[in-house]
Amino acid sequence: MTLKFARLGTAGNEQPAVIAQDADGTEKYFSLTPLTQDIDGGFLASDGIERTRKALNSGELPEISPEGQRIGAPVARPGAVVAIGLNYTAHAAESGATPPEVPVVFLKPTNTIAGPFDAAPIPPSSDKYDWEVELAIVIGREASYLSSVSEAEACIAGYAVANDLSERDYQIPGAAGQWTKGKSLPGSTPLGPWLVPASEIDASNLRLQTLVNGEARQDSNTSDMIFDPATIVHHLSQYMVLEPGDVIITGTPEGVALSGRFPFIQPGDTVELDIEGLGRQRQEYFRAQAGSASGDQSSAAAPAHVNA
Questions:
Q1: I need a surface site. Which of 55, 250, 279, 308 has the fewest CB within 10 A?
Q2: DSSP string for residues in 219-264
Q3: Which residues, listed in sequence order, are joined to residue 282 by a DSSP beta bridge?
Q4: Largest Cα–Cα distance in the chain?
């Protein structure tokens, strides 16, 4: 039984759900509230995925309708969002960088997480806002000083689609670079629509795509990754404690606006990102106003896309 975990409802009031197919192959939504209040680290660490399978098989979960409901990020606000840079060979080349010999690591504030269909703010003074489709890892058990890559693989609960939105003028100029400034903006990590268990995904061979206003920008495969997910988790565990519910975004393939081949995101643009087996997200972009609290318009986001 293939499962997809989702969170439905207005921002800050999402309810946990699981999507499963019936005997006819029809997808149905079921509430997870009999098992958990949210899809978070506690749920994942307590074998929540397998408990969900058992509850579905025994008919314990009530069916619900997703119609008209917003889809939020599939994991409640994580303790950490860890990001990997320059992790695709072709993207490193288009960025003018030598492929790294060890993972390039930076952190994003957890308040950058947004729903996959939420309206997306462009910073008031931004001229170079850029898309980055990325495979997101969700951690299912604590990882610290792991002894092997295989041990790291067992710490991965599942995968999701992420967009690592990046303001290049904030990120790159200067001798030292300013990656934190360029990648910490409000709403700059749309996540979802689903969390798919790791046991159901071959993360080494997934097609990733980005469309801007319906035109192809990125079209690659995770096979071009320099460091695979388990290697990344093992590496990070030598330097930090990864906790259940934490999210790692694993780098983007070639085809970003930074390459010089495409214009940067403009107000009114629509960006769609898709990863094979993990669903599609879609954001419409607007110019945030100076002086606003966050520029967030998630409450005005489109309702759930059932066929995302």
A1: 55
A2: EEEGGGBSS-HHHHHHHHHTTS-B-TT-EEE----S--GGGSSSPP
A3: 272
A4: 60
Show the tokens assigned to 290. Answer: 């100076």
Mean pLDDT by 10 residues, the chain (308 residues): 94 97 88 98 98 96 96 97 92 81 95 98 96 98 98 98 96 78 96 98 97 98 96 98 98 94 98 98 96 56 48
pTM beyond 0.85, yes or no: yes
- 6: which 2 tokens? 């989702």
Under 8 Å between Cβ of 117 and 11: no
Between CA 182 and CA 188 the distance in angstroms is 10
Q: Would you state the pLDDT for residue 58? A: 96
Q: Alpha-carbon distance 48 to 12, whole Å?
A: 21
Q: DSSP characters for the chain?
A: --EEEEEESSTT--EEEEEEE-TTS-EEEEE-TTT-SSSSHHHHHTTHHHHHHHHHHTT-SPEE--TTPPB--SS-S-S-EEEEES-BHHHHHHTT-PPPSS-EEEEE-GGGEE-TTS-EEEPTT-S-EE--EEEEEEE-S-BSS-S-HHHHHTTEEEEEEEE--EEHHHHS-SSS--HHHHT--TT-EEB-S-BEEGGG--TTS-EEEEEETTEEEEEEEGGGBSS-HHHHHHHHHTTS-B-TT-EEE----S--GGGSSSPPP-TT-EEEEEETTTEEEEEEEEEPPTT-SS---GGG-----TT-
